[in-house]
């Protein structure tokens, strides 16, 4: 149930399922707060989620209603998330992400098996004849109100470098370097290669689960962010400690 409005115009959600995970603060200064976001916790209020979001929990923890995210992570994705606490600094940090001046490194668990040839876009092997590392380029489209994104023919808007990092029996750890930031880009690209991520409820097919089922997290973590601080000129590197769990479902 959603009624009224909350902080900064966000809707207040009643009877919201509790999410038993908390973001861990890994850095803070007078301008930003960096957290290690757990799986299942949305970045900011949307739909039925209000209290179960990083934004609201950080505003309540610090008593600072002006905190906003500099970027977003999907609710299903864990890892490094940057929030801005100084309103005067919002634009500078948000532009780092919008202008792709942040180096993002993700890790995921996915099957070990032969790669398939995607129906659209291109795959370039960067160290032939080895399969990995490779560069996946395609056009990814995501429409509001539709759960899945998809690939179609047309100008490329999504680019990801994929490396095979370590094998774990029938599963492997892949390290992903997105050069663009389309919604669900990494999940779509891995699925298009025939390597869907462990615990993915959307790709290759939609799997429904109860809102309070936290048993099978998506095995995707925003492992590291690197950027030059726009105010101090210091190179910042933040790393997530959220583990990948090989016990999840493939």
TrEMBL record:
InterPro entries documented for this protein: PsdUridine_synth_cat_dom_sf, PsdUridine_synth_RluA-like_CS, PsdUridine_synth_RsuA/RluA, RluA_PseudoU_synthase
Catalytic reaction list: a uridine in RNA = a pseudouridine in RNA
Designated name of the protein: RNA pseudouridylate synthase
Species the sequence originates in: Bifidobacterium choladohabitans
Domain of life assignment: Bacteria
Database matches in Pfam families: PseudoU_synth_2
Domain Pseudouridine synthase RsuA/RluA-like: from-to ranges: 32-192
């Amino acid at each position: 149930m959603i009624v009224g409005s909350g902080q900064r115009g966000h809707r207040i959600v009643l009877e919201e399922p509790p999410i038993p995970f908390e973001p861990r603060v890994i850095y803070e200064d007078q301008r930003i707060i960096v957290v290690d976001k757990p799986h299942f916790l949305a970045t900011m209020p949307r739909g039925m989620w209000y209290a179960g979001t990083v934004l609201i929990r950080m505003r309540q923890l610090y008593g600072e209603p002006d905190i906003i995210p500099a970027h977003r992570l999907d609710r299903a994705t864990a890892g490094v998330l940057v929030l801005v606490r100084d309103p005067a600094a919002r634009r500078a940090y948000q532009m780092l992400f919008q202008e792709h001046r942040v180096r993002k490194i993700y890790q995921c668990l996915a099957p070990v098996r032969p790669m398939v040839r995607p129906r659209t876009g291109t795959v370039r092997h960067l160290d032939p004849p080895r399969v990995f590392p490779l560069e996946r380029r395609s056009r990814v489209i995501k429409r509001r109100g539709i759960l899945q994104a998809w690939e179609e023919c047309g100008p490329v808007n999504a680019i990801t470098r994929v490396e095979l990092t370590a094998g774990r029996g029938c599963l492997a750890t892949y390290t992903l370097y997105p050069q663009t930031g389309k919604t669900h880009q990494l999940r779509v690209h891995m699925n298009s290669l025939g390597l869907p991520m462990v615990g993915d409820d959307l790709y290759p097919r939609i799997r429904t689960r109860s809102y309070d089922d936290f048993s099978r997290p998506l095995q995707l973590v925003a492992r590291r962010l690197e950027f030059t601080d726009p105010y101090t000129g210091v190179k910042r590197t933040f790393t997530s400690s959220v583990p990948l769990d090989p016990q999840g479902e493939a």
